[in-house]
């Protein structure tokens, strides 16, 4: 699919525009993704473009799980798009911005994710829903002129209702002019001019038919110009649905490609816990974390998975292999130096002799810091890894409590660990419902919001800019950052 050829054109005939000269083959930033990318890509681009897109799609899915309003979802999505997948309009692609590169990356990421998400009915459904939402966010945010150019370049088979027909159905069409409450302002004028009507086969606008916002006659739906976006969204959705089914049939041919299949398998897990950012360095630049600080930090800043590990370690004076691995790498990335780590684990394993500790555990601690064996710098585990690998068995303390605890144990653990930070029994209902629906990291994000409300975090803020928790270190780092901000504010006020 990804051959070394330049992309010549989109399937739908583009209209000339300002951007046509700066982004050949991509006259609009909006894209129906009719054709696969036909340019050469590196394996790195292949993966990175998909990961960045998946960050956005995973957050869209989290937004639905968190019952965000459309405006909130849009705001969060736009912020993430700006950060991970900027896509400038023709009119704003000025200076150093290269719209061609942005649009090619958008195009590539979409198609890589098609490969990852076409393989089951469930994955296809989730991909179509989130892609359609991303398209809608971009479509609503598009400049009016460019949106009209884009819409006019698409061939949806709609027919403009002429004057004769308009006078025949004057009363019926007039009734459609009443703007339904809550319709976004940006949907008001696009496609054909405002106060005009188009007719399409009614199956192209099922949502408008269901909401009785069209006039039906002879199998056609008469649609007010302000509702044209519904046709566009429906076309986008049904074309993508069909394309995914087609890709699924073709995919078995790729099964022998040992480079791509593991990558695609990994990507398809992205909806489970979002896509983590890299957490490889200490979040507290300049602040040393000592072994004797961990107990206090765990109570104030750690997510439930790490609090649970800390509790088990304190209680049993021991942790099994996967628990040590999960907690040890987390502490390393938090900023615990190797010397302090050895001290911490030595003190924690207080039931064993120095000799046993040095022989059986010290090597592994040094190994995880890249000082032994193949000297690799191991990263801390992300939520996705904790949720999907090394499932804990009886007596194990690692894993994610939101996924691996029974509902009763989870509820009692939440109250034990977080009631002093503001989590009450009334919050449990919402958290347990999210867990039941399989949105574990969304439940964790909600707990973060509740337990940091005293530091100004509101519902929907997530760990910053509305983002959900995707990594335990990100959770802890943000919690520490909030505490610092609060104490700095306190200092400034005291000086004033
Ligand atoms: Fe830990 Fe992530 Fe689970 Fe939260 S969602 S408890 S950070 S693994």
From TrEMBL:
GO CC term (a single one): alpha DNA polymerase:primase complex
The protein's name in its UniProt record: DNA primase large subunit
Cofactor binding summary note: Binds 1 [4Fe-4S] cluster.
GO molecular function: 4 iron, 4 sulfur cluster binding; DNA binding; metal ion binding
Matching InterPro entries: DNA_primase_C, DNA_primase_lsu_euk, DNA_primase_lsu_euk/arc
Annotated function: DNA primase is the polymerase that synthesizes small RNA primers for the Okazaki fragments made during discontinuous DNA replication.
Keyword hit for Nucleus: no
A Pfam family of this chain: DNA_primase_lrg_N
Source taxon at top rank: Eukaryota
UniProtKB keywords: 4Fe-4S, DNA replication, DNA-binding, Iron, Iron-sulfur, Metal-binding, Primosome
Region (Disordered) location: 1-22, 459-496
Domain DNA primase large subunit C-terminal stretches: 296-475
Gene3D superfamilies: 1.20.930.80
Cofactor: [4Fe-4S] cluster
Residues the record lists as binding [4Fe-4S] cluster: 305, 383, 400, 444
Lineage: Eukaryota, Fungi, Dikarya, Basidiomycota, Agaricomycotina
GO biological process: DNA replication initiation; DNA replication, synthesis of primer
